[in-house]
Amino acid sequence: MSAWEGFLRQARAARIWSRLGGTSDVVVAAAALVALLLVPLTATAYGLQLATDILAAVALAYGWNLISGFTGYLSFGQVSFYGLGAYATALLVSRTPVPWYGAVLLGGILGAAVALLLGPIMLRLRGILFALGMLGLARILGIIFNNWNFAGASLGLSLPAALTPLAVYGGMALVAAAAFACNAFFVHSGFGLDAMSLNEDEAAAVAFGVPATRVKVIAFVLSAIFPALVGGLVAWNRSYIDPTSAFKPSLDLETVVFVLFGGIGTLWGPLFGAAVLMVIGEELLVYLPNFELALFGGVVILTVLVLPGGLVGLANRFGWLRRPLVLAPAALPEGAPPAPRAMPAGDVPVLEVRGLTVRFGGLVALSNVSLTLRRGEIVSIIGANGAGKTTLFNTITGFITPSVGRICYLGRDVTRLPTFRRARLGMARSFQIPRLMRSLTVWENVVLASRHGGQAHRAVAHTAWVLRITGLAALWREPASRLSPGHQRQLELARVLALHPALVLLDEVMAGMTREEREGVRNVIRHLPEFGVAAVACVEHVIAAVADLSDRMVVLDFGHEIAAGPPQSVLRDPAVVRAYLGEPL
Amino acid sequence: MLALQLAINGILLGGLYVLLAQSLNLIFGVMGVVNLAHGGFIVVAGLFTYWFTIRSGVSPLVVLPMAFIAMGAIGALVQRFLIEPLMRFGSRAELLSLMITFGLSYLLVDLALQLWGADFVSVPYLQSSWTVAGLAFNQALVIAGIFAAFISAALYAWLNLTLSGKALLAASQSPVGAICCGIDVGRVRLVAFALGVGLAAAAGVLVIIVTPLAPETADDFTLLAFVIIALGGLGNYLGVAAAALVLGLVQSAAGYFLGGSVEYILPYVLLLGVMMLRPQRFRRAAS
Amino acid sequence: MNDIAAVPALTVDGLVCGIGPLTILQGVSLAVQAREVVVVLGANGAGKTALLRTIAGLITPRAGSIRLFGEAITGWPAHRIARAGIGHVPSGRELFPRLTVADHLELGGRFCTPARRAELRRRLFEMFPVLAERAAQRAGTLSGGEQQMVAIARALMTDPRVLLLDEPSTGLAPKIVLALFQTFPELRRQGVSILLAEQSLSLGLSAADRGYVIDHGRIVLAGTAAELAADKRVADTYLGR
Fold first, then answer.
1. CA atoms within 13 A on the CB side of B217
2. Residue A169 and which of A310, B85, C46, C219 are 20 to 30 A apart at CA?
3. Which among A129, A301, A399 has CB closest to B100?
């Protein structure tokens, strides 16, 4: 299924209107709706303009929230799209017979197109550089339009007869509503869950099948549409645009302030922040004209230091406006064990690693390591600290690209395949130190993986089943940050199972466990084949715990394989004893 | 002849750029803090210099140490109360410092607007040129470029030749290792930030001798400094110096042949270009 | 202990520490006498590194006390503890990759008098001749064993009374580790007491006078090196049986 189809399916599944969180959400939504309808009926011309400006701010805030709130990629240059939308609209209207709403929509599409072009490149970078890049983009566009005579250069463009203020209000209300709807989709859908997981821990998200770049780019493109639409409408409202007002830097400042103050990454934050601060700003600016920038700058600083969660964060402490669980049913269903994964015919090994060499600069972490896992095998990999065990797992799962060597999974060469695709094909790993999504609940941590794994078509039922068999059913609504260490490890295991994997790679899963906990994990490992797992590889320090469980044992030392074979004979091999347990003295 | 003239102008400009970038490199390299208020400090210092020299008739070079110390002190306060509290947020500290310095930059810009208005102003110091062997040397550019280069060199010397400077480098390369040596890493962060801001102020004083400043140009300086660091390599002092010189040369040539707008836009185009063509420089290290 | 008058170099009493809801050390008590080498053994994740890091001040304890020659240093900032005489060689070494070996030594000896610094440096170059050869080389370009030497030398330049060594054998061939341990007698002679955290049973016991075995944040066994070497239970907890 293509990305777009997947996206559409998600949109339908979100069923926004039937999933409006708790009472507080309904109250706020109703109040907003009432206000929206009352304004055109009762307000003065000034009031209508203010309301239009507030709606513009709300739309911009929601747009920014999509990229910076959910994925955590702070953009300080959304004004680029605003200006592009404004100019596109102005140019289309003044030179072509396109009607005004067509021009505005085309402006929106232009914004999306530019985001689609730049997104894949810029979103692979660190967050800071993305922020700087967007800042730079805004400056470049400002300069280009300042010198482009076709667009009126520094004098700008005038637009023909303006729309009625009511029409602009209506248009802005539609844009704001659409932006809100987009945010609501993010908050309730699996796609939004993917975005939030990237914000939390991109490496872990990718290991469980989240297509990082794709999600980021879609979020970015969506975030570009709304400022472009707003820009187009504002151009209409003012009947005039020029580079200074179209690409004004303070637009991003205001938007950032609004969302931060309201509650970044939340559903209602942008609305609260924009509405409250716009009104306060209007009032205060009567007394303190020209202090706009300082005021907003100060609000940003104070909010970061004192109230990083914003107004919604504050409300959450009282139990209001809590984010609803994503893709969660009202009660945990029984769930059923999944059908086994379709495997390729013949005796194709589950995993075949040949001649793997990994170099970090001058250091050789792995040297010519080969490993084959056949169906039904459990292999344990042991070795002293620094022997290369975790590096081996990281290379097999795709976090590290080998300098030399091939990795074949179920007969397919995956050496160059991105990590998230390997996860979707059924290669699951646990992390040495559990990398759970701490801001998400237990349910969401697991459904995140289910959605991308072999049981994606019945993700909810599969998640419920996984939670039951790993003993986490009672805790399904708990935030992952509040789990005890034992439960955290169970959750880590649950995520692995949620992918419905054929190959399971367990990285020191027994570390720091009590004897009972270890026995529990050993049991799960023994039963994994019943869950459709074709092969298991364990990296372990607690040798005794895996010695009787494994069919084969491989010993690594300084990146080389020094022994392999049945555990009992390997553990008696003098080379192994020497390397692992130290020289007998 | 022309080439030589452009080259010399470019090198002098580059000298100025080195200071601009190194002051930010100190903060970014040691603390990993992206100081978006960098340009704000530069502009405030520059405009203050303008105001002070107009009022008192004193040479701006006298203002330089004053600005350095005063802004350095302000930088220390900013670090202590705005940045250091963010360190407890661990991995989120980077983005939060981005936000907070973003807010700070607007505070500074508004301060500048209130105190000195929105117009471009410049310090009428050393307006003439020296002519040597048929080449014209803009006096202001020469003085500013040489001073800036000298200050940058002094910074480099301090960092690499003195024990206290090496302690700062150590703290940026391994905070835990530095602690093991008894180095107070918290204090190092304070000093690095204060020094970075003080040097930015020094840069501001020198810039306004050469070119007019206005509050709205603050972001341009921030971006310029980041572009140079991106090109030269984070924490790589010699690389940044080289990048600054190259940029100075390129801008000098571009400004002459292609006009003011291109000269202005060049750093941004370079930034986006480097991001697109050499993203490896910026890739997040595998965890 | 036998001699009541001799103040132990390091005393740890009921140390509790953790991160968030996790408790890593559940009340650890141990002592290192002057000029002793004590080893802390245990499986991965048992708490050895946490123990050393808490003593060094990198982790703030929630309960318990730490004393250096009788003086309470609990809760002191880590850099102050380093200056007070606890040298720490962290796991992962934590070197400064772009600074030279000589720089490392200089920085380690920053708070000594120049005379003392020169003396320490002379002694270290005697103990680790390789360092003298590579004095001008950047630490990032050294081999694993050389890096470990630099880390230890740097800690010794702080003129410590107690040296904390966190899993020095990591990533090193046993031969090199043994060579490292052969410097211990000289260090003891110079008045340094050593607390060593080791994963490798035999390596750890070969170097120490006494040892403790830590499991899930608690001391479960203690005794002289000979006693522990003979005790089957050590291998049991270690291998998780």
1. 24
2. A310
3. A301
